[in-house]
Amino acid sequence: MDEVAVAIADPVRRHILTLLRDEPLSAGDIARRFTISRPAISRHLRVLRGSGLVRDELVGRQRIYRLDPGPLAPLLDWLTALTTVDRWGRHLDALETEVYRTRRERRSRGPAEHRREHTA
After folding, report:
1. Are the C-beta atoms of 55 and 65 separated by less than 8 Å?
2. pTM for this structure?
3. pLDDT for 6-52, tens place per residue?
4. 34 and 12 in contact (C-beta within 8 Å)?
5. Half-sphere exposure (CA, 13 Å, Cβ side) for 99?
6. HTH arsR-type domain spans which residues (predicted)?
7. Where are the alpha helices (H) located in 23-109, listed in sequence order?
8. Which of 17, 11, 24, 12 is closest to 71 using CA atoms?
9. Cα separation of 94 and 9, whole Å?
10. Maximum pairwise Cα distance, the chain
């Protein structure tokens, strides 16, 4: 998961992944879409290949790159767990607010009403 996080930390590599999401591309096709040098694109592709996010295949004289989203799954699971905890926190905050509101309403009705509710 750490290699994947490092790989997607760079905006150029994220852009490459977005390009490969739509279609497989050769290294030359990828390099033509950026203003940085072709060797720099090769280094980014090497990092992506090392993380498992990109697979390459030699077709004739060209190396074709394809996205492999599989290694993103553990990172996605971890991020989902973080947002799920936050969602539960909001639900518990809402429940706490409702409990305080109900207690305040019972106190405002007076002691006789309050006692009757506890004896039922």
Report:
1. yes
2. 0.67
3. 999 999 999 999 999 999 999 999 999 999 999 999 999 999 999 99
4. yes
5. 6
6. 1-87
7. 27-32, 38-51, 72-109
8. 17
9. 35
10. 89
